[in-house]
């Protein structure tokens, strides 16, 4: 996030696109509702009539995968009506002409036809955001989990720069992270192309700095593979060993038949986790890890705030902290490095990472600090890009609309989109063991619009078979106008009736993020035999 969570309270307008905030990020969702009660205007764009749509000034129920079209249509209106921030554009940006060219002919009429919304609603959303003194954009995986995910994000940045809604308090571009320490993991170099603090692997001077600190002769300057690429490489025998920590791709990844084949084809599979997940059941070796309350360390949350995590209880059995397991493994592989505790590891990281250089455990004792924090006197940075962008001037990109990788046809006439529910978390590794949560959300289901359901002769509660080009599942139908006609929704949490048996593994060419939010399916009423249990057909 370029800005902080509490800054939403000072926004005049919040534009939420591709984020079911109240269910996926309930604390932030509550903060946004608090802002609305104080007078903030809300624009919501989503394929489903999510809960926050009830609080919105403008709701745009767009077709899955049409984010770029909507944004281009809005920017066309802003430019045509001279609502753009000329001063900001002249002083802080470059290549503005590329954006102008891309949206010149992308009228709201054209966008409306692609997105399936009203022309005037697109124009009204454009005017409301552009005229705001302080406008904030919030997005999540409804933007990123597409084959056009990078373009979606770039176009959001285009919109923010076009209106000068960045680099000030209560404005900005604010992606909400999917799990509690995704930001921290990325900050710490859990990406194939960076060391800590997003220092590029391909730069020799960066590699030399880390090689010197770690007392090794040299480090590679080649970027590695993303998680999606690893699965593909394992399936084709190009990767012989996989080491999976705290991740459950046998539920969370697209095209689970392909994932299963890849993991079973891997010569040696190690899984490090707190429970025996569906993925761990396929492993050659399972390393029992400690849970968050059983170890010391830090998390970095979605607003870049580094926070202490303190051990409250001892880990059961042979479970150990992740860093202890990794340190012992390094030792067995010939690299002797003995850390005394997590604070020592954090101090080493801070010494090598400019954005964390001013943070240590002592400063984190009472409250978290938002990076960048370059020295011990620095208070942390509530919002980014105050005077300039990291690259200097903000770069506009001309983004053309392209459709999703897989479209509907006669055989697969419905569009499936996936997501989360309030009462389950990710692949239910933890929440699936809580009786109260399972009472609230016990099983997978498919949401179907009443008109679509009537055409298919499906009633609420019927067992239905949902099929894509990759597989089929059996789930209960939930008939609801939350989804539009010819669009269906399945939560991805459940191993039985798994949405990701159906989803497409096609991925964005730059980020390699798979297109989990759009695929073509067919839904058929299913006459279930008594006692039938297998929900993954």
Helix-strand blueprint:
Elements (H helix, E strand, L loop, with lengths): L12 E5 L3 H4 L1 H12 L3 E5 L12 E3 L6 H14 L5 H7 E2 L1 H8 L4 H8 L3 H13 L3 E5 L1 H4 L4 H14 L10 E3 L6 H6 L16 H10 L13 H9 L5 E5 L3 H4 L3 H10 L2 E6 L11 E4 L8 E4 L4 E5 L12 H11 L9 H11 L16 E2 L23 E2 L18 E6 L15 H6 L4 E4 L1 H6 L7 E5 L4 E8 L7 E5 L27 E7 L12
Parallel strand pairs: 1-2, 1-5, 2-3, 4-13, 5-6, 7-8, 8-9, 14-18, 15-17
Antiparallel strand pairs: 10-11, 11-12, 14-19, 15-18, 16-17, 16-19
Helix pairs in contact: 3-6, 3-7, 3-9, 6-7, 12-14
Give your account of this protein's structure:
The structure is a single chain. The chain is α/β, with parallel strands linked by helices and 537 residues long. The chain has 3 domains: 5-176, Dimethylsulfoxide Reductase, domain 2; 182-370, Rossmann fold, CATH 3.40.50.740; 414-525, Barwin-like endoglucanases. It is built from 18 helices and 19 strands. The strands form 5 sheets. It has a 6-stranded mixed beta barrel. A 5-stranded parallel β-sheet has the order 3-2-1-5-6, sandwiched between helices. Strands 7-8-9 form a 3-stranded parallel β-sheet, with no helix packed on it. Helix 3 crosses helix 7. The model has no long low-confidence stretch (mean pLDDT 95).
């Amino acid at each position: 996030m370029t800005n902080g969570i509490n800054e939403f309270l000072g926004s005049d307008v919040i534009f939420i696109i591709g984020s079911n905030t109240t269910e996926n990020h309930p604390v932030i969702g509550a903060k946004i509702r608090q802002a609305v009660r104080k007078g903030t205007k809300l624009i919501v764009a989503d394929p489903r009539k999510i809960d926050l749509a009830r609080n919105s000034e403008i709701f745009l129920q767009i077709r899955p995968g049409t984010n770029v079209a909507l944004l281009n249509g809005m920017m066309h209106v802003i430019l045509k009506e001279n609502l753009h921030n000329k001063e900001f554009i002249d002083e802080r940006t470059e290549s503005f002409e590329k954006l102008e060219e891309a949206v010149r002919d992308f009228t709201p009429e054209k966008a409306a036809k692609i997105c399936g919304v009203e022309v005037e609603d697109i124009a009204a959303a454009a005017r409301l955001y552009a005229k705001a003194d302080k406008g904030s954009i919030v997005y999540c995986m409804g933007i990123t989990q597409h084959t056009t995910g990078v373009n979606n994000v770039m176009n959001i940045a285009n919109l923010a720069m076009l209106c000068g809604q960045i680099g000030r308090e209560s404005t900005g571009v604010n992606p909400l992270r999917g799990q509690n320490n995704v930001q921290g993991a990325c900050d710490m170099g859990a990406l194939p192309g960076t060391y800590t603090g997003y220092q590029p692997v391909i730069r020799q001077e960066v590699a030399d700095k880390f090689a010197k600190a770690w007392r090794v002769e040299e480090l590679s300057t080649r970027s590695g593979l993303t998680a999606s690429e690893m699965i593909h490489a394992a399936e084709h025998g190009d990767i012989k060993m996989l080491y999976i920590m705290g991740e459950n791709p046998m539920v969370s990844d697209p095209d689970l038949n392909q994932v299963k084949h890849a993991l079973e084809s891997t010569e040696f599979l190690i899984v490090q986790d707190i429970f025996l997940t569906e993925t761990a059941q396929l492993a050659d070796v399972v390393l029992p890890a400690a849970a968050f309350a059983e170890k010391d360390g830090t998390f970095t949350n979605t607003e870049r705030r580094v926070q202490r995590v303190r051990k409250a209880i001892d880990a059961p059995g042979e479970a150990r902290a992740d860093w202890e397991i990794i340190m012992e493994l390094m030792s067995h592989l010939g690299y002797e490095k003995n850390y005394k505790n997590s604070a020592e590891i954090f101090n080493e990281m801070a010494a090598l990472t400019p954005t964390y250089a001013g943070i240590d455990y002592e400063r984190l004792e009472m409250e978290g600090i938002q990076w960048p924090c370059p020295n011990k006197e620095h208070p942390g940075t509530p919002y980014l890009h105050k005077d300039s962008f990291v690259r200097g001037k903000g770069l506009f990109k001309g983004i053309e609309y392209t459709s999703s990788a897989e479209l509907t046809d006669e055989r697969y006439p419905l569009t499936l989109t996936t997501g989360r529910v309030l009462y389950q978390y990710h692949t239910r590794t933890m929440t699936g063991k809580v009786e109260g949560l399972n009472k609230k959300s016990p099983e997978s289901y498919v949401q179907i619009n009443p008109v679509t359901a009537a055409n298919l002769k499906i009633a609420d509660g019927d067992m239905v078979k949902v099929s894509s080009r990759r597989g089929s599942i059996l789930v209960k139908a939930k008939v609801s106008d939350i989804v539009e006609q010819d669009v269906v929704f399945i939560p991805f949490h459940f191993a039985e009736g798994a949405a990701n048996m159906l989803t497409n593994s096609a991925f964005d060419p730059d980020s390699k993020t798979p297109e989990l939010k759009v695929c073509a399916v067919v839904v058929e009423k299913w006459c279930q035999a008594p006692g039938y249990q297998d929900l993954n057909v």
